[in-house]
Amino acid sequence: MSYCVNCGVELADSEKKCPLCKTEVINPKYIVNSEAAMPYPPYRPSPSQKVSKNSVIGLLSLMALLPIALSVICDVGINGRIVWSGFVTGALALLYLIIVLPIAKSKIDSVTCLGIDFAGIIVYLYYIDRTIEGGWFLNFALPVTLLVAAVVMLITFLSLYTKSEKLPIAALTMILFGFMNLAIEILLNIAFLTRDYLVWSLYPLATFVILGIVLFYINANKPLKEKLQKKFFI
Amino acid sequence: MKQKKLNWMRLDNAAKIFPAVKRKNWSNVFRLSATLKEPVDTLILQSALEVTVKRFPSMSVRISRGLFWYYLEEIEKVPGIKQDEPYPCSRMHFRDIRKCAFRVLYYRNRIAVEFFHALTDGNGGLVFLKTLIAEYLTQKYKKCFSCGYGVLDRNQEPPESELEDSFLKYEGPVSSSRKDTNSFRLTGTLERNEFLNITTGIIDVNAVLNKAKEYNVSLTAFLISVMIYSIMDIQNIEQPRIKRQKPVKIMLPVNLRNYFASDTLRNFVLYITPGIDPRYGEFTLEEIIKSVHHQMGFELTKKALNARLTTNVKAEKHLILKIMPLFIKNIALKLVYNMVGERKAALSFSNLGMVMLPEDISAYVDRLNFILGVQATLPSNCGVLSYKDKLYINFIRNIEEPVLEQKFFTNLKQLGITAKIESNQRDKYRYEISE
Ligand SMILES: [Zn+2]
């Protein structure tokens, strides 16, 4: 027989460690076949009943197909050709891409995923522009989307894959957002030839750039940062 | 040909609560087991079970649903015996209970019976197990074994007295108040996959009896006091501020057959909740033992128990409760149970006492065991019995941490009583790689 060196209780032959304190039983003078003495059959965890990934994707695909099929049938039935159902199909396909991609490829990194999503958005916008002959794709929609994509992907990359702190990332986000407003107004002016001077974008630019600089300043000033943390933690 | 009509029975007074308060993943189950000297012959066990169930019409039943109450209905077919699980008292689905409310399991030398608590209590279950063992031995060794000590004659027609609801028989004129304070409760990390940990302490019964004698109290009073002492320790660590502590109380089932003449094989149990209030000051073990001893002496008299019993019977007979449709009744009973049922004690400590068998049978039986399933919201329970010269203390828990078990057995060790510990703990390493 063996005893637990920690609790002092005697241990049955089935116990390889003390059931009360998990201390390993080491007794070179008393070696037993613990398997033979086990009071219950060995435990085999039953495979947990997880919903398989493929079944979820299948369900989502079917759910996306239903409205697509319905709208195409309606559209062709009424107009004799595809008029508006292309937009519905495109929007649903885009939504499908955004939802299903992270589920299907769980190992995909977020930045690549966002890249593919934005590519989908660009294709969809191109389709709309061509169909309605808008003429705003190349000189407006494409640059704006690329700009937003670049900013979002950069921020995501910084916050997920670098060890930088939250405060400087927030500061950078503010400043980039300010400049984005500026860029959008410039692009609007060029694309639609509205005016040749800036009207509204300077306000958000100034506000966000200053806020960003304040955040950078707080981040650099350790005691101040700590004091603010103490006052405003959630 | 006319089909044989199945017998049915009302649930007894104590049983009525169990089907009403069952949960999706919990119902009240307990296990009794006997370990023989040789591996179990499954064919003989099945055949012995077929014979035995006929002698126990109140146990070979399923639970059925009436408009106002659940009731017991005799089963047509004896259930098949099954290989034991890695842990005892595993969940009994209610859909299974509606087919058959007990099960027979085997593992190596051991035969175990698990009952849904609405059928019977530990003492009734023990009679079933003993009779099943006697029938098994009779068929295996082709000779006669004696009856007595709870072994029933299988050829005898079951008498009415074994099927009666003794609660109704002993209803008195006055009921006592059920007001009671809430108890401190144990907590921990819930096990995954509904695994139940079982920790058995095997102790020389004379060592414990002698110790109890030193304090001039019964074995049960002594063990309960050590339990309270251990839980008090745990509360001191969890809540060091005495003012904020809660009373520490244990639910102790009392076998009413010892107080009221009854042969019933159905539930005939009441609970008392001895305990201490740590806010009164620091208790020594001696003080706890003394207090528990007197609380038990005060509560465990025929008159006091009669008043308690009357309270329960009066509640059942309340007209409004009676005419409530079953589904509303279930909601009402569940509410009451959630508010009071499991809050009055930290755990149940059920001692079946010294269990005897006729000599020719006990020669084939090495060990008997009694395991109480967990309660719906309390993580631990404790079932105890003595057989031959050993005392078997079974802790069951649905949480990972064996804090209470360790405190209890090390406290006994400090009193000079060494337990031999056996468990169903998993080999962590092995089950992780097989996952
Ligand atoms: Zn130990």
What does this entry show, briefly?
Chain A is mainly α.
Rounded radius of gyration of chain B (Å): 22 Å
Could you estimate the helical fraction of the residues of chain A in percent?
A: 55-70%
- Output the number of helix runs of chain B: 14
> Runs of chain B with pLDDT <50, length 5+?
429-435
Based on Cα principal axes, name the global outline of chain A. flat
| SSE string of chain A | EEHHHHHHHH
Q: CATH class of the largest domain in chain B, please? A: Alpha Beta
- Biggest sheet layout of chain B: 8 strands, mixed
Stretches of chain A where pLDDT is under 50 for at least 5 consecutive residues are none
User: Helix segment count of chain A?
Assistant: 8
* Arithmetic mean pLDDT of chain B: 92
What's the mean pLDDT score of chain A? Answer: 86
Biggest sheet strand line-up of chain A: 1-2
Termini of chain A, distance in Å?
A: 56 Å
CATH topology of the largest domain in chain B: Chloramphenicol Acetyltransferase
* Content-based structural category of chain B: alpha+beta
**How large is the radius of gyration of chain A?**
31 Å
Oligomer: heterodimer
